[in-house]
Amino acid sequence: SDVGSQKDRVVTEEEWLQKWEMGNIGFHKEQGHPLLRKYLDVLLSGRSGLRIFFPLCGKAVEMKWLADMGHRVVGVEVSEQALKEFFSEHSLPYCEEPVPEITGGKKLQSTSGNISLYCCSIYDLSSSIVGKFDGVWDRGALVAVNPCDRQRYVSLMISLMEKNSSYLLVTVSYDPNKHKGPPFYVPETEIKSLFG
Ligand code: SAH
Fold first, then answer.
1. Mutation test residue for ligand 1: of 25, 56, 142, the one with most atoms within 8 Å of CB
2. What is the pLDDT of residue 150?
3. What pLDDT is recorded for position 173?
4. Beta strand pairing status for 106-110 and 115-119?
5. Nearest CA owner, ligand 1 atom 21
6. 114 in a structural domain
7. To the nearest whole number, what is the mean pLDDT of the chain?
8. Is 1 domain-assigned?
9. In the 8-state DSSP scheme, what is residue 23?
10. Protein residue closest via CA to atom 5 of ligand 1
């Protein structure tokens, strides 16, 4: 297939942690993502006080935007450094607590209570731990998971969605023979079959 060159590639959690340690975080957008501004109304569809999920959140500034608009934000990220940088770069006080259901897992929550960031692998989560969401901002998430884990990732995401939730997905389009990823190239046909 046209993505054959990427399908066996695996990036380990350790490699992601190293990227954060080395400051190899070219994916981080200081200014926030223009596509979230553009499609914000689609995500919210006139609703207020939503619970919004940020899978593989890094230190995405969009979490602060949505919290400032009155929504509750939940993120998950393996790098504790990323999460600490998020809170410190926005001067947000937070507290830390273990997550009893997840060995080694931690929850970092803003003192104001509206931003909860789980430090663990997304595959450790379930709706019994984090509940369900009205909206999802998936940027640098589906395209960052290892190709062999895509179906597992998508099935989990579907299990975390409320009935009327909206899911904004950002992908990248390029020739997968010219770049090894991440971000990986996920063709639209595959997205359709993954999400059903
Ligand atoms: N969505 C963010 C970050 C994208 S980069 C943004 O838009 O800026 C992908 C992030 O996923 C990295 O920060 C990496 O540390 C994290 N990550 C990779 N595998 C993960 C996993 N299994 N569970 C949770 N986070 C993971």
1. 56
2. 98
3. 95
4. antiparallel
5. 121
6. yes
7. 97
8. no
9. T
10. 140
Find the helix packing angle between 150-159 and 188-195, rounded to 10°.
50
In angstroms, what is the span from residue 57 Cα to ligand 1's centroid? Answer: 6
In a domain? residue 116: yes
- Mark the ranges of the chain whose per-residue pLDDT is less than 70: 1-3
- Binding residue positions for S-adenosyl-L-methionine: 16-27, 56, 77, 121-122, 139
Q: Is residue 4 part of a domain?
A: no
Name the residue with tokens 């380990």.
12
Give ligand 1 pocket residues (Cβ under 6 A): 13, 16, 27-28, 56-58, 60, 76-79, 82, 121-123, 139-141, 144
What is the CA(186)–ligand 1 centre distance, in A? 16
Q: pLDDT tens digit string along 123-143?
A: 999 999 999 999 999 999 999
Hey, what are 76's tokens? 């998950």
C-alpha distances out from residue 27 to 41, 114, 190, Å: 24, 25, 23
CATH number at residue 133: 3.40.50.150
Range of the domain at 131: 13-195
Domain count for the chain: 1
